[in-house]
Design a protein that fits this description.
- The protein is an alpha+beta fold.
- 32% of the residues lie in helices and 18% in strands.
- It has five helices and five strands; from the N terminus they run βββααβααβα.
- The strands form two sheets. The protein has a three-stranded antiparallel beta sheet with strand order 1-2-3, covered by helices on one side. It has a two-stranded parallel sheet with strand order 4-5.
- Helix 3 crosses helix 4.
- It is globular.
- The structure holds a DNA duplex.
Amino acid sequence: MINIIIPFPVFKPLHLCVSFSNSCSSDVITSISYGQKTFQQSSSEVDNLIFTKKIKYELESYFNNPGFQFSLPCDIQLGTPFQQRVWQALTEIPSGKVKTYGELAKELKSSARAVGNACRRNLFPVIIPCHRVVSASGVGGYAGDTLDTQRGQINFLQIKQWLLAHEAVDR
DNA sequence: ACTATTCCGGTAA
DNA sequence: TTACCGGAATAGT
């Protein structure tokens, strides 16, 4: 498995850690997580330069142009069958638009709460845009944070808000 | 027994 | 009428 680190705009010590592996001759991203600088960037001899460049290129493109469409392969099968359905649906929400947990639930014939769960478990934040799902009354949660509860140093809701503002969603 | 929810009824300003 | 609480309903882990 290979990790690459990409700085996240605005939120100073914040980075995106992208992990990928090469399973039978094709590269797939296996997870993306938020971290603060101190992370180790693993440089393997087998490091696929082409793929790491593509990851960097696509993320930088998105940060420069919110309408950029990702084509990076994610190993969506790492999720449960239900999570796979939700994550797939997320990829179909275009930049600049949002859906509520309830709306998505209706489309998937599930419940708002279950959809929220699947979003919370999203292994590929930013490129699978779980930030485009909001609550009926407000903004909803992000990375486990809600309006009431915050886990680490940063309140990840600010990041969700930033992503939405970046995509020119008014709310 | 937890959730990144939502809807409806009651109450108060 | 609007705003704000409580509680039940809900589906997946």
